[in-house]
Amino acid sequence: MRTLSSRSFRNTDATPTTWKSRASRCSTCPDRFEPETWRPSTELTIRPARRDDLPRLVEIYNHHVEQSVSTFDTRQTSVDDRLAWFGAFSETGPYRLFVASDGDRVLGCASSSPYRSHPAFAKTVEVGVYLDPAVLGQGIGSALYAVLFGALLKEDIHVALAGIALQNDASVALHRKFGFTDVGVFHEYAIKNGRYIDSLWMERRF
Predict the structure, then answer these.
(1) 90-104 pLDDT, tens per residue?
(2) The model's pTM
(3) Structural domain boundaries, residue 131
């Protein structure tokens, strides 16, 4: 079993992890926060999602429904619609949902979900990240994945999968950073906003 290392985070299950803001770092740092895009408070917290996070998570998700192909959903959702989805996660076990928050404001989430309902896939999860568009490129996806995979390393999981609609170089790079390798591409297997979409599938073995 391989372990992940990170300078900025410690792995956690139910205890929130705080992350010092990097906004004051030198201007040449490639992962620094851009104050005109997002003004962070002292610390960013990565913690298990709570029921009262749902309205904000729905807001973030609906942006991606309307503005991107990171989800193939074509209709906006609601808090009521997402209750069953939220109920599938817990603070232990293979199916986790973590959020990144700056004070009271949720900035995004990372999750591990069942890949398929068949018992044969009990040790396989599908992972993904959704972020507020204002904080893209600020390292928050890495923060979320560091905690998520730190938790999953303690569970009886064999494979994590991720499907990424192309083109999305940032997402591909994020998954490679956390040990994912390419499996293959489905070509033009989905259609959204009037265009066909390719999707790269990636895997990481534990």
Answers:
(1) 999 999 999 999 999
(2) 0.82
(3) 17-157
